[in-house]
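Go through this pair.

…
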Amino acid sequence: MKLLLFILFNVSILAQSFEQEALKYLQKQFPEFEKIEMQLQKNFSSDEKIIVDYSRNISLGRGTAIIPVIATKGKKTSSSIVSVKVQLYKKLLVANRNIERKEVLAKSDFETQVVDVTKLNGNPVSLDFLLTDYRIKSFVKKGEILLEEKLEKIPLVSVGDKVNAEVKNGNVTISTEAFARQHGSKGDLIELVSSNKIIKARIVDANKVIVE
């Protein structure tokens, strides 16, 4: 019984030692996460020594990290991998109210929270993102993480708006009236109607486009 307890104790110490080493390596390799939690998927035998192989890269997926290791058992040493469960946490913007489609955004609509992003679908918006240039493309529920996929630029030009369309020919610039057939923001290429013809032009500001 004492021998069994001693073996179990040694196995526990080996697992804890490797887990601490692997966690430090994960945190170093992925500093973008505020916090990382991990759990081993297997137990080591008392005569097996496992250390992180820093010469190879960690593979991080949805809820799982594949950690390269050097395994020594008896006189045999080999390269191997250890799979661990992980939970990943980031500091992100979370809606503090329901936000309807087409609403213009403000910083006050969100709180900064450390949230579990292990299985998050989509690209979360960074904390320094300039929200005032964007509006909501689809409904955002209170408590929901703000994703890039939920945003669209506030259009400078909307369908039906009248703008000045400039056509450049060498040193000569000709300006004519045109009516937008599409929404668009600065730099967008949209379709317009001018003199009963459909043209394409790039938006300069709310009143001016350049025909291409």
About this structure: The chain has a mean pLDDT of 86.
